[in-house]
Amino acid sequence: MADTSSLEQQIKDIEDEIFNTQKNKATEHHIGKLKAKIARLKLDVEKRSSQGSKGKGFSVKKQGDATVGLVGFPSIGKSTLLTSLTNAKSEIAAYEFTTLDTIPGMMKYKGANIQILDLPGLILGAAGGKGRGREVLSVVRNVDLVLFMVDAQHDHHLKDMADELQKSGLRLNQRPPDVVVKKGVQGGIQVTSTVNLTNLDEDIVKSIAGEYMHNGLITIRENITIDQLIDVFVENRVYVPALVIINKADLVSKSKLKKQMDSIKRFGWKVVPISAKTGKNLDSLREEIFSALQFIRIYMKPVGEPADLDEPLILKDGDTVETAARKIHRDFKRQFRYATVSGPSAKHEVQKVGLDHRLKDQDILTLVVWKE
Predict the structure, then answer these.
(1) Is the model's pLDDT at 255 over the cut of 70?
(2) pLDDT tens for residues 181-202?
(3) In terms of domains, do 183 and 43 share one?
(4) If 0-12 CB within 10 Å is exposed, 13-18 middle and 19+ buried, where does residue 220 land?
(5) How big is the CA angle at 249 (ends 246 and 254), to the nearest 5 degrees?
(6) What pTM does this model have?
(7) What is residue 125's predicted lDDT score, i.e. its pLDDT?
(8) What are the E-state strand segments in 74-176?
(9) Which residue among 66, 74, 255, 331 has the highest number of C-beta atoms inside a 10 angstrom radius?
(10) Is residue 273 predicted with pLDDT exceeding 80?
């Protein structure tokens, strides 16, 4: 069995081969297979690195309704922003990370408790382990939202950081490809598609799949790329929403700031210009964080009592009455009789609903249970 250094050399050799291969229609099959082989080898390296690691781990207990990872280069102003958003230095505690720290704080907004982690400064090469970057990125893989902070005077930092996260298996502002893989024991690899594929053909799909399976059925239900197909088979990809903050926006001209914002928006990123030091535009940032987390507020109304409009139950867009019941108490579903809803999701003033009813922001919900 090859050791880690041997695997890394194989990866480098294949990367060199891809770099030196002319890119055209005739070579896309070969390049796709090489990319799939690299992804499989990198997965093997990651598994062995994690098994052989004897260093001190790095973890932060997730608290609140969601966790946001604040990612930026060193000395970018993350700590100042964390203090401004949480408004409570006394709630901040340091977690040891060898010579680095991550600082958690709690932001309260619209009834939600949102944990924000000021992570150690990300550096180039982090995905390859530089500066113990893999441990830092392992925390990022577990957050509910990535909050990139860039300096208004250094507009190239975003691409550098996004590339590091991409290399570590994070897929920002994307959703998993709509592909179903059912492995079998015989019959080879069969491919079906419900859409017209412009980036793939059956031979390429089978070639890539052959790196990970020998038999089975692959059903592709959207027009995807070779890289997206590889992601399906690697199975360790994490899909996380992301926002971009431009800090020190007050230190550059309006024209330069607009140019930088337009450049970021062209890549599909939502961007908020702020000043962590002066507090400029932080209310807009709080709202964008709340929106990106897809939170909805549900006001609980006990039977025969007024609704609690001060402390909403925080759920996610698309959640149902069952989700609310489970969050309140694990026995609620078993004891559930019916619910009543008034508000945006109700068809009339007060609607009687079941567990599968989808709730909307600012609904008023009453759960009726069997008495025991």
Answers:
(1) yes
(2) 999 999 999 999 999 999 898 9
(3) yes
(4) buried
(5) 115
(6) 0.83
(7) 59
(8) 95-97, 100-109, 112-118, 145-151, 170-172
(9) 66
(10) yes
Most confident range (mean pLDDT) of 84-93, 136-145, 273-282, 356-365 is: 356-365
Nearest to 177 by CA among 209, 224, 210, 234: 224
Give me the domain span that covers residue 20. Answer: 4-54+177-234
> DSSP assignment of 55-86, as one string?
SPP------SSEEEEEEE-TTSSHHHHHHHHH
pLDDT (0 to 100) of residue 91: 41
Assess whether 147 and 283 both reside in one domain. yes
End-to-end Cα separation, the chain, in angstroms: 60
Work out whether the CA dihedral 115, 120, 122, 127 comes out positive or negative: negative
Q: Can you give the length of the chain in residues?
A: 372
Identify the bridge partners of residue 105 per DSSP, sorted by sequence position. Answer: 116
Report d(CA 196, CA 199) in Å as an integer: 9
Answer whether residue 168 is part of any domain. Answer: no
Q: What is the pLDDT of residue 74?
A: 78
Total domains in the fold of the chain:
3
SS3 366: strand
* CATH code for the domain in which residue 364 is found: 3.10.20.30
**The Cα angle at residue 34 between residues 33 and 39, in degrees rounded to 5:** 100
